[in-house]
Each structure stands twice: as structure tokens, then as C-alpha cells.
Design goal:
Largest sheet: 9 strands, mixed
Strand order of the largest sheet: 1-11-8-7-6-5-4-3-2
Oligomer: single chain
Strand content: 15-25%
Number of strands: 16
Number of domains: 1
Order of helices and strands: EHEEEEEHEHHEHEEEEEEEHEHHHH
CATH topology: Metallo-beta-lactamase, Chain A
CATH class: Alpha Beta
Helix content: 25-40%
Shape: globular
Radius of gyration: 19 Å
Structural class: alpha+beta
Length: 326
């Protein structure tokens, strides 16, 4: 049994589908998942509402896409639990959609999978609906801080008090949601240093947040504690949780299967070993781009530039984890 370690506190970007090839790939991925789940007897009705797309993954779990990040709703006996709150520009629209879906059922809880603004931008709006916000302590610290993120070329100011978690934890744990107990797992220094994945075991749904991309190269945010070694470990741990029938919700885009998570893990592991060897030979991230080390993956995962440069920076910050050779 995982121990809950709540502490009461008083105080990756939405995919834009910029090109037709990428859009076609997303559609194929969605159709592939639909085929797999159909064979398992699972139907995924899709509804458009207020510009957002809602999809029933199970009787109790709904996926809302198009809010800046994927948003997941669980309907329990005593209320609705939300996972992630999308981006600030979509906050009002998302809150309206959740309110319509909830009806008379109160919104009680919001989990943030990590601090990124496309996952926490609607925190204030969901608090207005009645949600108490739960996140890892590192997520609260980043939301409270002033700092820069180089790979996004952005500066961040402390968020308003209403956006900050009411409850934080330091490890992994579980919470009774009224009809199902959700398990949450903290993975250190992965996409960020505050990432969690949430597993609904009775529903067999795994919400991966920033730990699984939408099918493009995943970015590890070195500015807030991420690096590829930690992301690989997180992916390996999630693979141990999932089975072939598990519905996996990535940070954006359609729901996925274990095979999709395995593909991300295999790609990351392969490129990590290649990059580690090249770093030892004195290669920079730009050198690796010029060498085309990702060429066998680019047709599937897209433009590798940001991924390679940020991964290289993260590796240079974790030389002790790679033998201390730089």
C-alpha cells in the first residue's frame, strides 16, 4: 500500500498541427487506437463542445482535448476530479465545458501533473468551480517562483495564490475518489522535477501528463529539473504499470496504448545511448543535428532540433549520472 504524504498549504506546449503530414499522422494514430480498443470491446464516442473535444474513455472517465493540454475528468460518488487544467487562454471555455458535463455534480479536486502553464493555466478557473488543487511540492515551488526557461525563450513570474496547490506531497501515493482509488506516482527529474502520472486501476486508465508526448519528440525541461535519463526511467516504470488493454492519456492528442508508450521508450533509450557515446567523443548538440543521428525516427517523431539541443544540455548537467566523463 502506498502511503499518502499530503501537506496542507495556505499559500511541453499544445501541438499546433502546423503541417498536413503531422495532422495525418495524428489522425492515423487516433484511428489505430480506436481499432485496438474496438477489438477489446471499448468504444470511444467523441463529442465537440464549445470548440473542445470530449471523449468518453470509460463510464467514469472523460478526456477533454483542445484546452492547451489534455484534461481528464473522473466522476466519483461525491464529485468530479480533474487532471490538469489546460492553458490560460482556454480556461474560461474549459471551465464552461466541465460545468456543463458536471451538471449538478460538484467539482471537488484538481491534480496538476506538473507546473507547465499549458497544464496549469486554468487552475484559477477550476478553483472557482470548487476544486482543491493537488500537486507535487516541486510543482508548487515552480508555480511560486520567478525563473526563465531557455528552450521556450520565456520568463515566468510567480502565479497568483489562487493558482497554487492547496495540498502537496513529496513521493507517490493514492487517493479515494469515491468509487475508485487513484494511484499517483512521482518521477524525479523526468519531463520536469515535479511530474506525476495517475493510474486509475479499476478503469485501467493511465494519465501520463508530460511524461508521454503526442507523438512528437518529447522535450525534457532542464530549467526545472528534467533530463532524458529520468524520462526514460519514468517511461520504464509506466510500462510496468500498463498492460495491453490500458488506455494511456498523453500530454496532448488522442489516447494511446502501451505499444505507443513502448515506442517512445525504445526511441529515447536508443538515442540516449547514441548521444552518450557522441558526448564522450566531444560532440555538441549541433554536431549531432548535423550528423543526423535521429534520421531513422524523424518521419515518425517530426523535427528533432529542439529535442536534441535540450537533451544535450540536460546530459551535460547530469555527467555524474553518465560516468562523469565531461
Amino acid at each position: 500500500m502506498l502511503e499518502i504524504n499530503f501537506e496542507i498549504r495556505k499559500n511541453a506546449t499544445f501541438a499546433t498541427m502546423k503541417n498536413p503530414q503531422l495532422l495525418r499522422r495524428r489522425l492515423v494514430q487516433g484511428m489505430t487506437l480506436a481499432g485496438v480498443l474496438s477489438a477489446l470491446g471499448i468504444s470511444l464516442p467523441v463529442f465537440a463542445q464549445d470548440g473542445l473535444v470530449t471523449q468518453k474513455l470509460t463510464d467514469r472517465i472523460t478526456l477533454v482535448s483542445g484546452a492547451g493540454s489534455n484534461v481528464v475528468l473522473f466522476t466519483g460518488r461525491d464529485g468530479i476530479t480533474v487532471v490538469d487544467s489546460g492553458s490560460a487562454p482556454m480556461a474560461s471555455e474549459l471551465a464552461g465545458t466541465i460545468k456543463d458535463l458536471a451538471g449538478a455534480t460538484p467539482v471537488t479536486t484538481l491534480f496538476n501533473t506538473h507546473w507547465h502553464e499549458d497544464h496549469t493555466g486554468g487552475n484559477e478557473a477550476l478553483r472557482d468551480l470548487g476544486a482543491r488543487i493537488i500537486a507535487h511540492e516541486n510543482t508548487r515551488l515552480w508555480l511560486s517562483a520567478e525563473f526563465e526557461v531557455e528552450w521556450r525563450n520565456t520568463s515566468h513570474s510567480p502565479r497568483r495564490k489562487a493558482a497554487l496547490p492547496d495540498m502537496t506531497f513529496y513521493g507517490s501515493g493514492e487517493k479515494d475518489l469515491g468509487g475508485e482509488t487513484v494511484q499517483y506516482f512521482h518521477y524525479e527529474q523526468a519531463h520536469t522535477d515535479g511530474d506525476i502520472a495517475l493510474f486509475f486501476p479499476d478503469s485501467n486508465v493511465l494519465v501520463a501528463g508530460g511524461l508521454m508526448s503526442d507523438g512528437t519528440y518529447p522535450i525534457t525541461d532542464i530549467a526545472t529539473g528534467g533530463w532524458i535519463g529520468g524520462l526514460i526511467q519514468a517511461n520504464e516504470a509506466m510500462l510496468a504499470i500498463a498492460n495491453d488493454a490500458t488506455i494511456i492519456v498523453p500530454e496532448n492528442g488522442p489516447a494511446r496504448t502501451k505499444a505507443d508508450l513502448q515506442a517512445q521508450y525504445d526511441m529515447l533509450t536508443d538515442l540516449y545511448e547514441t548521444m552518450k557515446s557522441l558526448v564522450q567523443d566531444g560532440f555538441t548538440g549541433r554536431n549531432m543535428l548535423d550528423k543526423g543521428i535521429t534520421s531513422k525516427y524523424d518521419a515518425t517523431w517530426g523535427d528533432p532540433t529542439e529535442f536534441l539541443l535540450e537533451t544535450y544540455r540536460g546530459m551535460t548537467a547530469h555527467t555524474s549520472d553518465m560516468g562523469g566523463f565531461i
